Amino acid sequence: GGSGACAGGRMKESEGLRQRRLQQSRVVADESRDVDTKHVSAYSGKVFRITLTTLVVTLVVPLLTAALLLQSPINPQPYSYKEPPLLVGPLEANDKLRQAECLWEGQLLGPESIAHLGDVIFTGTADGQILKISDGNIHSVARIGKLPCGTREDEPTCGRPLGLRVGPNGTLFVADAYYGLFEVNPVTGEVKMLVSAQEVIQGKRMAFVNDLSITQNGRKIYFTDSSSKWQRRDYKYLVIEGTADGRLMEYDTVTKQVEVLMDDLRFANGVQLSPAEDYVLVSETTQARIRRYHISGLRKGGHDIFFDNLPGLPDNIRPSSSGGYWVGMATLRQNPGFSVIDFLAPRPWLKNLIFKLFSQEMAMKFAPKYGLVLELNEDGSVRRSFHDPHGVVIYAVSEASEHGGYLYLGSYYSPVLCRLKLNQL
After folding, report:
1. How far apart, in whole angstroms, are the C-alpha atoms of residue 421 and residue 402?
2. CA atoms within 13 A on the CB side of 314
3. In Å, what is the CA distance from 260 to each residue of 12, 67, 239, 277?
4. For 256, phi and psi rounded to 5 degrees?
5. Would you tell me how many other CB atoms lie within 10 Å of the CB of residue 147?
6. Low-confidence ranges of the chain (pLDDT < 70)
7. What is the reported pLDDT for 271?
8. Helices (H) and strands (E) in the chain, counts
9. From the CA atom positions of the chain, what is the Rg in Å?
10. Nearest to 182 by CA among 253, 109, 268
11. Of 196, 254, 262, 275, nearest to 224 (Cα)?
12. Is 351 exposed, middle or buried (0-12, 13-18, 19+ CB in 10 A)?
C-alpha cells in the first residue's frame, strides 16, 4: 500500500512540474507579446511625435512667421453686428431666383447695373463698356476708359461703369468707379464728364465712385463714393477692413457744385431717391444696413436708419412698382448657421492673419454663394424675398431692376444677364 501512495505522489509532482513549466513558457510568451506591443506603441508614439512636429513646422511656424514678419494689407477696425435675422416669414428661403432666364451668355461680363429706355436695355460691363441691348442684339455705346482691359492691373485705366440711370432727356448717367460721373448720349456715344474722380472734395479724392440716383427734373444727382482709400478692385479689403470713409454726395447740374451729405459710411453703395423725392436711401454695405438722408421737409438735412440688420450685405437699391424698393444682396449672413462676416467683425487680429496668408480671391472662397433679392415696403419692412440657395443660377446679385413685368438681375461677375417674370412667382 505504501509504495502505491509514493508512486502517486511522484506522478502528482511531475504533473505539477509540467504545469509549472507550461505556465513559465506561457509567461515567457506573454512577456514577449508585451515586448511586441511595447515596440508597436513606442513606434506609433514616435510616428505621432514626428507627425505632430511636421504639422507644427509646416503650419504653425509659417503662421507665426507670417504673423510677425508679413505686412497685412489692411488695417482692420473692430466692429460688430446684431445677430442676423432668421430667415422666416417674408424672408423664408425659397428657390424663386432659380426660375430666372439667363440671356446673352458669354456676350457680356459683369452687367452690374441696368437701365431701361422703352424696350432698350443699357448696362455697364467689366471690360469698361456701356452696352445697349435692343431687339436681342448687343451693341457698344461708349467706353469711358481706354484699352487694354481684363486684368486687375488694367482696371483703373480701363474704367468700370457701375451705377447707370436714364435721365429725363433720354441720356444716360453713369458712375464709373475710377473716372467719376458722366453723361452719355446713347445714340451718338458722346461722353461728357460731370464730376472727375480726381476732384478733391472736402479734402478727399474719390477712390471708388459707385452708384447714382437722379431727380425727375434732372437737376440733382445723388451719388456715392464707397471709399477714399480702397478702389473697386480692392472692394474685398474695403469690406473686411471695415473702413468707414464712404460718402453720399449731391451734384447740382446747374451750379456744378458737389456737396457732401453724409460721410464716415462703411462702404457707401447703392443709392435711390424716394418716389416723392423727399429722401434718398443709401446702402451701407459693410454694416448690413440702409441709411436714409432727408432732402426736404421738416427733417431736411437729417439722417436715420431705414433698415437695420439686413440678412446679408446690400448692394444697389432700385424702385419697385409697389412703391417700395428692390435690394440686391451681395452675400448672406447665415442664421441659423455660421456667418463668416459676423464672426470676423470683432476680430481684427484674425482678419490680419487671413490676409497675410491668402490673396483676396482665396479669402473670398470662404464666403457662401447665395442668391438673394429683397423687396422692401416704403416703411422699411420686408415685403418678400427671392432666393437661390448655393447660388445655382445666380449669386451676389448687385441689382434688381424692375421693368415691364420683369425683374432684371445685375451682377458684377456674371457672363449673363438674367431676368425673372414677376407674375409667375
Report:
1. 10
2. 31
3. 112, 39, 22, 18
4. 65, 20
5. 11
6. 1-42, 66-67
7. 98
8. 7, 24
9. 33
10. 253
11. 262
12. buried
Contact present, 214 and 221 (Cβ < 8 Å): yes
Give pLDDT, residue 179.
98
Per-residue pLDDT of 6-39, as tens digits, reads: 545 555 555 555 555 555 555 444 555 555 555 6
Bridge-partner residues for 382, per DSSP?
Answer: 376
- What is the Cα–Cα distance from 270 to 329, expressed in whole angstroms? 11
Query: What separation in angstroms does the CA of 49 have from each of 42, 46, 57, 141, 173?
Result: 10, 5, 12, 66, 65
* Cis peptide, bond prior to residue 156, ω within 30 of zero: no
Distance between CA atoms of 110 and 249, rounded to whole angstroms?
A: 25
CB contact at 8 A, 406 and 420: yes
- Start-to-end CA distance of the chain, whole Å, equals 111
Residues 6 or more apart in contact with residue 124 via CB below 8 angstroms:
111, 112, 113, 130, 131, 160, 161, 162, 164, 174, 176
11: left (phi over 0), alpha (psi -120 to 50) or beta: alpha
Spatial neighbors of 258 by CB under 8 A, at least 6 apart, are 195, 199, 201, 249, 250, 251, 252
How far is residue 287's CA from residue 310's CA, in Å, rounded to a whole number?
A: 9
The amino acid at residue 394 is I
pTM: 0.84
CB 132 within 8 Å of CB 186: yes
Residues with Cβ within 8 Å of 422's Cβ and at least 6 positions away in sequence, in order, are 402, 405, 406, 407
Contacts of 13 (CB under 8 A, 6+ apart): none
Which pLDDT does position 65 carry in this prediction?
A: 73
Q: Which three cell numbers stand for residue 138?
A: 448687343
Place of cell 424675398: 385
Kindly state the cell numbers that stand for 8: 502517486
Report residue 101 as a C-alpha cell. Answer: 432666364
256 touches 301 (CB < 8 A): no
Torsion of CA 223, 226, 232, 235, to 10 degrees: -150
DSSP lists the bridge partners of residue 103 as 417
CA distance 102 to 410: 11
Cα gap 36→33, rounded to integer Å: 5
- What pLDDT, on a 0 to 100 scale, did the predictor assign at position 46? 82
